[in-house]
Batch of 3 targets.
Target 1
Amino acid sequence: MPWSNNNGGGGWQGGGGGNNRGPWGQGPSGGGNQPPDLDELIRRAQEKFRQIFPGGGGTGSGSGIGTGGSRGPFFLVGLVILGLIAYTSFFRVNTNQEGIVLRFGEHVRSAAPGLHLKFPYPIETVMTPAVTNITSIDIGMRQSGGAPITVPEESLMLTGDENIVDISFSVQWRIKAGHAPDFLFNVENTDLAIKAVAESMMREAVGQSKIEVLQTVGRNEVQNQVREGLQATLDSYGAGIEITEVKLQKVDPPAQVLDAFRDVQAARADQERLRNQAQTYANTVIPRARGDAAQITQAAEAYREQIVAEAEGNAKRFTSIYNEYRKAEAVTRRRIYLETMQDVFGGMNKVLMDKSGAGQGVLPYLPLNELKPAGRSSSSAAPASSGNSNQTMTGGR
């Protein structure tokens, strides 16, 4: 047991020698509160330590008790000091932290995540900033009860086309890798510094842009411009901060002119729509007209090539005929005459008359073209021809 029981009493019996007493020497009732006996407590603690560490702490009886009692407070104080030294000599760095070891307030080294050893306090102290956590700062608005509240003194800005715009944005940042000491010692109020510089950079970017650009295609450009300017300024301060993102939350006109601004935007949208429709019609008609013109040009060129080729062929044909004509003029003249008559009379209605009979005024003629009417086949024309022949022959009788 933790307490001595040499006198045969109970577990709570102490040096007072009385029976049925409490652990601090007072009686069970009616005796009042008595202060604890420090010598007795120290002696019991020494006995307990002797049981744990045999051979140390002096003798266990007689004058040794008195000697041990006089050295007991110093022993406990030394033990407490040793415990404090051991406790302050070890430190742990979490996975999202970086250990910054200070020796009498001066940065001497950095520690990676894990368990490390250092000189005890107050020689060396450790600071463990969270270097991987991302912090967000809202500018132009505040969250109150889950709903955003606009801060006009931060959100109202003047654009390059002299319009007032209500802008709110957020800045996300973290401690730059390897620059935790700069973050701890170079800037006193980090959030205030980031907020002031970010607001200044945003006002400069908005002052160089138009409100329509800020609301449409220029958002990303403004965000990148503010992030780069903010990062350069903080680097010049040696703040040890990395800006991960600048994001525009709201880009609207002030509430007092919001309706009128929306009407203007609707009119501009209609103008843009009509312009697009006209451009679409032009893109349809102009290529079609160009295609028709190209088709006509190509047809004319083809006709020209055809006429030139035919003329060249006729010229060569005439030359070849002329050469043959010079060799045999009579024969060639006769052949040309017959070919011409064939071409002329081939598709005409013909009547053959014989003028050889003397003294005959009119000679009966044979209507050859009527013997084979146009549009009939050769098979149907044969009976008709034979019939007409019979009729002609009969009439001759």
Target 2
Amino acid sequence: MGIFDVFGSREERERTALRKLQQRLTERFGPSENRQKAADQLAAMDTPAALLALCMRFTVRADVGITDDEEKDAVRRQLVAAGEKAVAPVKEFLERQESGISWGLRVLTELRPAGEVMATATALLARVGGEYSRDPEKKLVLLAWLTEHHAPPVPHDAPRPNPLPGRDRGEGDGRDAVQRPEEAAILPLLEDFSDDVRIAATRALSRFGAGEAGREALIQLLLRDRDNARVRGEVLQALHLLAADVKGHRPSVEELLVEPWFLDKEGRVKRRG
């Protein structure tokens, strides 16, 4: 038996060291100095596994809130300083973890072009949108991030030009020619079990714009959640902002309307005042 059989292989020793450093890094109630030292050691190792372990600091909140934010921001700077080496670990972190992903997105935004970050976040949203989760945090963070950073701005309570191709213009059959990835990723979340997720998805769709599939999905959500005042109000607001009509559903929608909402002669949702 050789000496390396006694003490383990180099890879095993490195895995053990990483595991211990990650444990120290994510200890919520330990001294701040211990977490900071572990973060510095992981950053100095500068390997994909160490950088992935470094990302785990984002998943816990230390006992002292102010110190927690400072520590996380320091980790963010360390990951950004690692440059291209950190891209793959950060993307893996975003894929695997349920919490702390807003920090991961901030890091990725500083490392990669906006279009690539958009594609990454959209792909993540498309994946989690079809999965059940007890905690909706990841879905809510992705929806909020996409809306805040990439959706075109909409003036408060101002309807946007009708984005629905071929509707009420005699053009084609009213179906979308191409559905954008953002809309395709958002639509399944309109059926999520969480009220907050359905509302966030509704708001996101009203910012990104909706094609025929989006219009129909919003109307179906309105009809399903007819007794849920929060969701109903958000859907009506979204249809209003999108200047979308309720063609094919007017009687069912009309009976749900209360002030200040009404339908104009074209079947579009309007708001008085």
Target 3
Amino acid sequence: MDHKKRINDFFEGKLSQEQAQELLDWLDSSEAEEFLSAEILQIWSEKIRAHQAETWDSQPLWEKINQAKDGYSRPHLLVDLKPSKKLFPLWLKAAVVFLVLGFSALFFFEVNKSVEIPSGISSSEPKMIVRENPSGQKTKINLPDGSTVFLNSESKITYPEDFLTSRHIELEGEGFFQVAKDEENPFSVEAEGIITTAIGTSFNISTFNSQEKVAVTLVTGKVRLNQKGNKNSLDLNPGEESLLSLKDESFGKYPIEVSNRISWIDGVLRFSETPFNEMIQILQRWYGVKIQVIGNPKVMKGTGTFDTNESLQNVLHVLSGSMEFEYQLKNKEVVINFN
């Protein structure tokens, strides 16, 4: 079935009510999650942009949104997409909101629970876009300049709406960046006061560090690191990593196996002499669960690699055998017992 054509027909009003509902139901299925790509999402985005109208009144729309939030256990929104006044429940995982600010309309998409919202509401302040993932979710984000960000769970990026000429991102958590080359507009990422600047390259940044430092790993190209407010800098070459913080004035770097550091992008869960407490934090972020530990795990570290999208049940089964604990898994809660 030609899904692109179905999306086009939906926005052109060629689908019947039944056909439109079938499309929206399909968009909320596991099959759609596997099929949908950045190209399809771009088509959806362009169609939404094309149907913006100057006659839209933001107040009734916000009332619809609030009613939807209060009336459904799942976040369905009702938006009038066609002049015929037919109302369709929009795709659960692509909620579109139009907000009239001055003469412009802003929009956001929610994809895999990644949130994009305008954060600047004053005309004197730059408008900012926020993309955020909860635990258990990872997303691929295409930036306006052609760069790509793979955003890990429990992570957030913030960047200006005029990103093409102001390529600066604030990161909380972990992200892998593939930067489109633009020598006139350098690309920079700030994480806990550590600024990474690049022109065209790919690198990983993580604030998930037990030492409360920022780990920057260079995959390709070249980046320059510096502390906010400090003129000293450090250049990284491919295959090198640096741990930095605002509290530590020293600069240092070391070689690292890059594939191990960025395996999370492909859904591969990897532990390498990882302390037990850190493993628990990683599992909670990775699977979106809460883990309770009963008893004393003592001082132990774990090493192991779990294939793409390995189930939590299998991971716990393997770890319980090597670390000698019992566990109970129910819905989104795990109890690990060392007694």
